[in-house]
Amino acid sequence: MKKFNNFIAGKWVAPESGEYFDNRNPADRGDVIGRFPLSDKRDVERAVESATRGFARWRRTPAPGRGDVLRVVGDIMTKRKEEIADAMTREMGKPLTETRGDVQEGIDTAYYASSEGRRLFGKTVPSELRNKWAMSYRRPIGIAGLICPFNFPMAIPTWKMFPALVCGNAVIFKPAEDVPHTGTLLVEILLDAGLPPEVIQLVHGRGEQVGAAMVDHPGIPLISFTGSTETGRIVGETCGRLHKRLSLEMGGKNAQIVMDDADLDLALEGALWGAFGTTGQRCTATSRLILQKKIHDKFLGMLEDRARALKLGDGRKKGTDVGPLINEDALRKVEAYVDIGVSEGAKLLTGGERPKKLSGGNFFEPTIFTDVKAGSRLEQEEIFGPVLSVIRVKDADEAFAVNNDVKYGLSSSIYTRDVNTAFRALNELDNGITYVNAPTIGAEAHLPFGGVKQTGNGHREGGWEVYEFYSETKVGYADFSGTLQRAQIDTYLGTPD
Ligand code: NAD
């Protein structure tokens, strides 16, 4: 059985504990991909020592040079795309079409980051005093601690890591324990592209040990976390106490609204992809379907037929539409929510069980509940599985109110042919992202990604905005007048010469 290691201080090394865990294929639990380190605080300690040296060197590398490394990373990822996608499907389960997309997002993020190395704009503005310049510019922060979820094993680490690196920070990367292999491949690629070894550290292991040790370590001034709202709360409390810079991207309960005037065939494709793509394990997955009353019954009929026809199976086999859930805990959580839905009086239209045939993996049938009451637990809580709750509404106002009445605020979608309703939705829906005539999923690397309310803490991944998070703005004044000029005293705006 292949043993994988941490990457600390420029070397692939065993964890201090000497212990390892099995990484299993969720489509076939008997298939062990490899054994990965169960690291602890001591490994994090060593990673911080090394990253401190890496940072001292990397922060002085000109930003365009840092960007050049990311360009090579993009080139290598492009060449290895198919192989990485295959490895990712084996450890995470989603079908190859989706893991190829996951790698492609990493490639797009690499090229975008590479070009930012030649910008990283500050501002030069006129000073209020003569013969004096005033400017703002960006500096790196230090060591960035990156804690990642399982559902986008390549894309999400790259969203964090590439801008962190271009801004001149060193990185300590902790992948989710269910997807350590893809994380290892990513670090290999960075090293092959010429990243100085001490600039990147990879520490595998459990969140409660490795993640918590990173959050608690005074030598890591910045934490970027993506995961559940519950874990994010724990991370946030510690970071608040230690005054750390913190980005949180957390849970969602996203809705697709279908109005009476919508193109129903288009809305149907959106609902199927949004609800059951990635087996419902996307932060932007469509968990609620809000249907206007006239099309409600007709649309449900169309949806039921297509949901029943979705093919469950191994994501590496041709023809598979829906892969497994990530692990047994996730299966149990989905089952618990099916029970909750039934006990709350919602009607189970289809699904609701583990399929009899695929008992070797963590499979669950695409599940649809109808007559779901707004405010019920099924309608309010994040399930993170292939469970869609359908809510009937009378008009756009009620649809907007139902969409907004949850504690999360990541993405939303509306299908309508009425331009006024579409623009009202863009104004009224309380989410970080709203799609018109498209499903709740589909982020692009050059736009900011993130949510409001308990989905996030005001930062964004992607787009230009993330570069603000990974750099500190500093201001420089240069006075070449040769005299003491006192701001606000010797001159002020509006005084003629
Ligand atoms: P999770 O919260 O269980 O784990 C996320 C990461 O945190 C893992 O690496 C884990 O090891 C680590 N961790 C666990 N306990 C920790 C602790 N005490 N201290 C520090 N780190 C700790 O989440 P998950 O199951 O991997 O991912 C699913 C969740 O992520 C869902 O809630 C989903 O909505 C969310 N998510 C959000 C976004 C977004 O951008 N908003 C994107 C993807 C996933």
The top-level CATH class of the largest domain is Alpha Beta
Low-confidence stretches: none
User: How does the overall form come out from the CA principal axes?
Assistant: globular
What's the total number of strands? 21
Number of helices: 15
State the major sheet.
7 strands, mixed
CATH topology title of the largest domain: Aldehyde Dehydrogenase, Chain A, domain 1
In terms of structural class, how would the helical and strand content be classed?
Answer: alpha/beta
The number of domains is 2
| Cofactors and ligands | nicotinamide-adenine-dinucleotide
Report Rg: 24 Å
Distance between the ends: 80 Å
Strand order of the largest sheet: 14-15-16-13-12-18-19
Please characterize this protein's 3D structure.
The structure is a single chain. By secondary structure, the protein is an alpha/beta fold. The protein folds into two domains: 6-250 and 456-475, Aldehyde Dehydrogenase, Chain A, domain 1, CATH 3.40.605; 254-436, Aldehyde Dehydrogenase, Chain A, domain 2, CATH 3.40.309. The chain is built from 15 helices and 21 strands. It has helices at residues 41-58, 63-79, 81-92, 96-116, 155-166, 180-192, 207-216, 229-241, 264-276, 293-309, 328-343, 377-380, 396-404, 419-428, 465-469; strands at residues 6-8, 11-13, 20-25, 28-37, 123-126, 132-140, 143-147, 170-174, 200-202, 222-226, 245-249, 254-258, 286-292, 347-350, 367-370, 387-393, 408-409, 411-415, 433-436, 452-453, 471-479. The strands form six sheets. Strands 14-15-16-13-12-18-19 form a seven-stranded mixed sheet, sandwiched between helices. Strands 9-8-7-10-11 form a five-stranded parallel sheet, sandwiched between helices. It has a three-stranded antiparallel sheet with strand order 5-6-21. Helix 6 links the parallel strand 8 and strand 9 (200-202). The radius of gyration is 24 Å and the shape is globular. The termini are far apart. The mean pLDDT is 97. The chain binds nicotinamide-adenine-dinucleotide. Nicotinamide-adenine-dinucleotide binds at residues 147-151, 174, 176-177, 207-208, 211-212, 215, 226-228, 231, 234-235, 249-252, 283, 382, 384, 410, 451, 455.
